[in-house]
Task: structure prediction
Amino acid sequence: MTTPGIPGQESLGRVHFIGIGGVGMSAVARIMVARGVAVSGSDAKDLPVMADLEAAGAKISVGYAAGNLGNAQTVVAGSAIRADNPELAAARAAGLPVLHRSQALAAIMAEDLAVTVAGTHGKSTTTSMITVLLQEAGLDPSFAIGANVPALGVNAAHGTSKVFVAEADESDGSFLNYRPQIAVVTNVEPDHLDYYGTEEAVYESFDSFAALLPSDGLLIACADDPGALALARRTLERGNTRVVLYGTSDYADLKLHDGGPGDVSLSTPEGQFALTLQVPGRHNALNAAAAFAVALELGVAPETAAGALAHFAGASRRFEFKGEGKGIRVYDDYAHHPTEVRAALAAARSVAGSHRVHVLFQPHLFSRTREFAQEFAEALNTADTALVLDIYPAREDPVPGVTSQLIAEHLGPGGRLTEAGSPAVAALVAVAGAGDIILTAGAGDVTSYGPQIVAALGG
Result:
């Protein structure tokens, strides 16, 4: 039975994706092809994922042209597609329904038991953990994740069970298009204020997300995060659904005991279960607790859930190991909010032990830098060396007076601005010694520095 208000997959007909090469768009297209939907798509560049989709049965075009629509009955447009795109203009002129990626994903999840993962941080990792855990437990879910996951090989697939695990993005409010049976909220903090405008609007959007759950649904929220805990309490007051809390807090129903690497366990009503985790950091232990809670709700035995988590080796750009040279290990992380930067550096510190941690950070968005400059500096000051690049603008135009200097002026003795390219690489190589960790962090093109640093180290 299709969920009210959400179009079913069968109503879409032939679907054309404008911007099919994007990680989120290709994920939805991949699942549609696997489920027998006639799919076509285009992108400005010939990206590797497009060959995979073509091999699976999609009709792919490189470059945008109105003729690429063919006989499509529904169009899905990526968030980066401009209004004057010839394919989008032709679709609107023809009166075709044009869906956001999240609406298309909601359509193919409409008849499944949907598990959606939301939160300001940790969505991709937690969604990946849940998927790997359920696969290892034999449930074979369908899944759509906003990052590539080495343990899965892909970021989306059609599974044989009726369970569908999906990352739910709050950045543009699109997570409100889903109708979950189980919703995980890892944390709730002000972010994406370029979209929401105010902190209050961010919290209100998560209230609306939790309100989507049915009376027999379940909200799984992190008791260690003030925003998620407050959301859980408001949800309990409304009484529209059940709530389970996880974390190290005394409020947690699933109590996490985190004594560091090799000493992580969860207390449940069935007993205490040791977790073997390949990914470091308290934040990842909390993500594992969330995945464990989902598994229990779906009927997985706690012993099986605990063992399955040992198979999760991380998601792309989530403290991802890039290589080593001269005894110096290099990692890359997508961290682009102060809380994420602090968590990534804490993970780096746990791996480095008595050695030093050096970070190359690239701020993402002028608006985020303006709002959180001091908080970014405070997080970066937990490293021994913090080098800061110019702001990566992404979708924004420059804002007068907003530069990386806003962060730099709050940095400690080990922090400073750095030029892009070889000067940044040389500065890190010069300061690091055997046993140290170098971390590149940010949501922009800073990820390209990892291999350059490894090469400069002779790795």
Residues 112-311 form a domain with the UDP-N-acetylmuramoyl-L-alanine:D-glutamate ligase fold (CATH 3.40.1190.10). The chain has three domains: 10-100, 112-311, 320-456.
